[in-house]
Amino acid sequence: MPELPEVETSLRGIAPHLIGRRIERLLVRDHRLRWPIPADTAERAAGQTIVALRRRGKYLLFELEQGLLLLHLGMSGSLRVLPGTTLPGRHDHVDLCLDDGHCLRFRDPRRFGMLQWTPAPAEAHPLLRDLGPEPLGPAFSGDYLHQRAQGRRAPIKTLIMDSQVVVGVGNIYANESLHLARIHPKRAAGRISRERLNRLADAIRSVLADAIAQGGTSLRDFVQEDGSPGYFAQSLRVYGRAEQPCPSCSAPIRQCRIGQRSSFYCGVCQR
Question: What residues act catalytically?
Fold first, then answer.
């Protein structure tokens, strides 16, 4: 599933082509996404100018003159800016047709994505109102993590993947951040010192920033908006590397299950 770095990469790729453009037409070929696209979505979007484009967690927010479009890439979704005459493929479900003759095309083979129009403000939407702070924003810190971890017996990996605690730290980036911070993924969140949580917050920011700079991680379906792959997969330290040597100490990387997710760690570096 595209995580925060993949969504941010898509945002940065499409924003220059969309901001300030008028939507001539919203063409929906298949309404059957994770939640069916409401029948009036195309009518609400048509004729409006895209004023701004931003991200909240894994959601893309297209701010219009009235209301906004809320889009989620789901498990396999991708966005491309193409000439409007480009013939659609089998899984090209939505086109945002622009006044310059181009379109933003949403492709989603598994149809787990979503597209909805909603009135502003976005933060009042049920999908957004309970989200935690952005990990790259000023509200996220080791002190904040320490506050949220108090009394928690759940593994620290489970805590940092909880979108109500902090958004966008998916499975890949949780594994990588915990290794960089030298914290075992099963360690009870409430038993970790403030100092170590400060180190973890720094590691989360560092890992996500590096992933964004490299265009995300291409695992299975994800590609950037121009069709090229993300290259952070080449920098992974532990994720998907079971039995391979740890880049820090050369001990074999171990694998376990936490919350039905595969977890990778070094038994030496992450005691």
Answer: 2-3, 58, 261
pLDDT tens for residues 109-156? 999 999 999 997 888 999 999 999 999 999 999 999 999 999 999 999
Work out whether strand 102-107 and strand 78-83 pair parallel, antiparallel, or are unpaired: antiparallel
65 neighbors 49 (Cβ within 8 angstroms) = yes
User: Residue 87, Cβ neighbours under 10 Å: how many?
Assistant: 6
Q: Using an 8 Å Cβ cutoff, are 231 and 18 in contact?
A: no
Report the range out of 1-15, 122-136, 194-208, 210-224 with the highest average pLDDT. Answer: 194-208
